Each structure stands twice: as structure tokens, then as C-alpha cells.
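[09:14] KT: can someone run the structure on this one? pasting the chain below
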Amino acid sequence: MLFRSVFSMRRTLALSLALSLSLGLLSGCGPAAPAVQAQELTAQPVSVQPAGSPAVDQALTSFGLSLLQSAREAESGPVLLSPLSAALALSMAANGADGDTLAQFETILGGGVPLDELNAACAQLLSDYGDLGGSTECLIANSLWTDPEGMIREDFIGKCRGIFDAQVFSQELSAPSVVPAVNGWVSDHTNGMIPRILSEPFNENTALLLVNALYLKNTWETEFDPNNTYLRGFYHQGSDKESMDFLNAGFVTFPYLQSETAQGAVLPYDDGRLAFFALMPEEGAEFEVWLNSLDGETFTQLLESRRDTEFRTLALPKFEAEWDGQLQDILSALGLDLAFTFGEADFSLLGDNPNGYFLSQVIHAAKIEVNEQGTEAAAATVVEAVGGSAAPPETGVTLIFDRPFLYGIVDLQTGVPLFFGTFE
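[09:31] RB: done, C-alpha cells below
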């Protein structure tokens, strides 16, 4: 790695971020105690009053869509990401930033609002998702892993503890023991869905690891009848046809999404707040061109314009998808470049190392299953409206997702995306 070729001693300490996300249709999934071989530390928590922020909600939507578009462009294929999980971990890191570096965090994650407003909005989301109704179960856990030589400031740790309820551990991050320790913590907080996030220790210059874990169990408000699951053809890019199982429903009412260029459906969960959506461009449109034309504001307006509509036929693939990749270059290109630049990053509020800190790597992995009962997904990371949409047909909608589409899990109240993915 760059650190080893440039520095022969522990001088400039790199800041690495890790997230882990799990959404699942699992039963009996209470949180387990972290099985780690690390010393848990305490620091005086510094809390904020939770407060929603429309600016932050919109910024997180724009951030998530841009992240997806950029990752897909880099991969030239299907992508699955968790914008919420990435944003929460990056927001923790923002509390150690200052100057222009902090301004970039505030712009990308908060739409330009001050850090205090971003923190309050994150605290509100954490509170809201901890108190969802219906059969939904949600657990969000955060942790900081500090290297003994990292010189991380107590006031930074206190803010992460108070705002994000983060556990704090002391562990030599370049030692082999960090791998089973972090993997154990992540596995425990995702009910075993992510048994392994690390495969090797971090660079000897690493000062801090931030880990976010989200467990979410969801059930459809209106479930699909397993007896109506049968084979249909799906047309991949290039018109290659594949037979696969489709979930099918007829003469049912769901929120309908429609613009001049796309149509889709929203499938609410029984908690009354979160929902799965699928959005597909008009037939004949090139999926990549359409996807890249979306922006956060347009997507939000489209979601807000949804109308309850009767579907004569709604058919959606029953599928599993997974993705993993590096995000640091994508995040840098989206506007967080200073944070990843040695000598320019300003994390002076994070710790006391005289040579400073900067972000080093962000590794993200995600998996999702869509079936008759709901969704089950997991993700891990080591750190688009249309105004005045046309009225839906009075005779009912037939919508078959048999060609590439955008999907995800969103908060219908705020528009915040928990998951964005492409099925191609």
C-alpha cells in the first residue's frame, strides 16, 4: 500500500472507515453481545437534540443516487449499495474534520447545512428507526476501534458515543487479532448475516476504524402468494433472455410511480414507513442513459408524486443480488477529495498526531433477497421529479419488471434511501 512505500515509521496515521448493514426477514434476532478480543473504552458522551432536516434528507438521497451511478459506471454492471450506512459512518468521521475538509462533508452529506444540523438529523434517523411499527425490527449499532498509538481525542470519541451511541474499543489495528475481533462484532450485530468483513489487518499507520451495523427485518404490507410465483422471461442488457421466478399479483392496489420516462411501483412494508420500490425506464430506452439522467431532487419528487393505483398485473423477479467493491475513489470524485488526500485533509479535531490524519480505504459489500414475504439483505463496508406526472390509467396498470430496473428500500416519510440497487 501507499503508506508502506512512503513511510517507514508510524508518522501520518490513516483513518479507515468500516460499515456493516443487514436487513432481514429473520426471526428471533435480538442483538448479541460483541464477541471481541479488545478493550472497551469509555469517554464522556456529548449528545445533541435529535431534529429532522429536510435539507439533510434530500442530500442523502442525492448522495445515494450519485454513489450508485458512479459505482455502476466503474463496474459496468449491476450494483447494490447502502447509502444510509455509508452516510452514518462518514458523518461520524465528519466530527473529526475541520476547515475545507469539514465543508466538503457538510456539502455532500448535508446539502451545505452546518455539522450540528447534520448530527441532529442523524440522531433523529437513529431514533426513528429504533421505534418502527408493525412487525419491523431494526437495530443500528456503531463502534469505534482506536489504535493505542492513534492519539484519538476524547472529545471526538465523546461525540460519537453521544450522537451515534458508538461503542469504543482499543485494539492494535495492524495486529492479526483485529480481524476476528471486528468480524465477531459485525457478525453479532447482523445476526450472523455478515460473518466476515475483514480478511487481513490494517496498515500499521491506521489510527481509527469506524464500524456501523444495521439489522432490519421487514415484511410486505401485502404479501405475494407463493402459489402465484412462476417462471417468466427477463431480458438482460443486450436482449439476452433468462427464465427466472417472478412474484406475481393481480387486482391489487399499490402506490404507482410514473414520469415521462419511467414507471414503477412502491411496495410498502407493514411498519407504515419503509418501502421497497422498483422503477423501470420506458421500453426502448437505454437503461444506462436513463439511470444517469436521474438526480436526487427528481427522484424525491417522483417518489412524493406516487398515487395509490390498482394493478391488473404486477410482476417482479424473485431474486438475490450481491456486490462488493472499493468506494474511496468514488467518494473522492463526488466531492470528498480533501478527506482522502495526504497533506491536505484536515482532521485536526479527530486526534493529536502532529502529522495529521486522512481517510485511506472504504470497502463496501451488499447482498439482498426479494421473496414472497418481504426482503432480506446485508451489506458491509470497511469506510432522482417529475412535476405533474400523468394520471395512471383508469383501467388499471400492468407492470412487469422484465428488463433492467432501479430498485431500493426507502423511507416514505423522509425519502432517505436505505438501499439502492440495479437489477440488470
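[09:33] KT: thanks! The first helix runs from residue 2 to 6.
[09:34] RB: yep, looked fine to me
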